Each structure stands twice: as C-alpha cells, then as structure tokens.
Amino acid sequence: GGVTNVIGQAAEERLQQIATTPELEKAAKTLFSSLVNPGANGHRETLKPISKPSGEAEQKIITHFEKHGFITESKAGIELSHEALTRNWSTLKKWIREKREILEIKERIEAAQSNWNKFQQPIDMLLKKGSPLEEAERILDDHRDVDITGIQDYIQQSIAFQRKQALKQSL
After folding, report:
1. Which residue in 7, 161, 21 sits closest to 93, CA to CA?
2. What is the full DSSP assignment across 82-122?
3. Structure-model confidence comparison of residues 18 and 171, the more confident one
4. First and final C-alpha spacing in the chain
5. What is the pTM of this model?
C-alpha cells in the first residue's frame, strides 16, 4: 500500500494546485467522475477512456494532470493512467461515490416516471415533497456526466406541481 497511497496523496496535491476557482473545481469533479464507471451492486469501478472535452477549464485540468502522469492521451481519448487512483485518492473516491448515488437516484426517478406514464400521468404520481423531490432537484443541479434528459421534464413537472401546492396552502 505505500506506493499506492503516495499516488493518491500526489493526485490530491495536484488537484489543490490547479482547482483554484469553483469553475476549475467543478471541471475537475466532472472530468474525473467521467473517467470512471462507478460500478454498481458490489461491482468494482472500472476506468473508462473518454473523448477529450473541449472546455477551457477541462483543458487546463487535463494538461496539468497529464504533465504529472495521472492522465494519458491515446487514440481512444483520455484516461486515468493508474487504477490505484480509484482506491487511494480520497477526493476521487468521494466523487465516484457521489456519481454512484446520482445513478441510483436517476434509476429511482426513471422507475417512478415509468409508473406515472403507465397510468396516464396522474398528478398524484409526480415526485413527492421531501426526499424524492429533493434528490431530483439535486441531480438537476449537478448530474456530472450522467445523461438525465429522459427524466428532466418529469422532475420539472414535479417541482412545478409541488410549488403550486405550497402556494395553495399558503393562501
């Protein structure tokens, strides 16, 4: 474990050097989250190459981490150069855990939306106030590289309906 722990600590130091603004920090979080399949149901996460993002903040992060040997570029795109990072870099582990949660929330919302559609979209089957709606709003704000286009409308209708209900109750 000694060498692998050093890799995690070195990656954390590189992150602290480059992620000096909220924009760069968010770019790093999104970029590194997209370089790992989080694995579900007890399966381990796996590395996954992605095509090189074109954003300026992402470019800055990639260049910095590539220079220090944490990201490599090939015909397949860019990828993490050490699988040990997924186990020994505490910030990346946290981001992977968060992405896994986002995917689980998305699955729950897709299941609720499927039932809602099956029963001709009754308003009482929109997402309920409290945890389901709070989770939905959270992934609407920050869903990393997870595609939520199929559930956005359902989430927004749920939010609008709950706001309307709250307004009625306040009158």
Report:
1. 7
2. -TTHHHH-HHHHHHHHHHHHHHHHHHHHHHHHHHHHHTT--
3. 18
4. 62
5. 0.86
CA distance 15 to 91: 9
Q: Are 35 and 43 in contact (CB under 8 A)?
A: no
Q: Tell me if 14 sits within 8 A of 6, measured CB to CB.
A: no
Looking at residue 160, the DSSP 8-state letter turns out to be H
Is residue 159 a contact partner of residue 137, using CB atoms and an 8 Å limit? yes
Average pLDDT score, the chain? 92
The CA distance from 138 to 46, in Å, is: 25
The residue among 56, 55, 37, 57 whose CA lies nearest residue 45 is 37
For residue range 75-98, list pLDDT tens digits in order. 989 999 999 999 999 999 999 999
Helix (H) or strand (E) holding 73: strand 71-74
Copy the structure tokens of residue 42. Answer: 């007890």
Give the residue from 92, 93, 115, 95 showing the smallest Cα distance to 103.
95
- Which tokens sit at 110? 């897709």
CA distance 81 to 70: 5
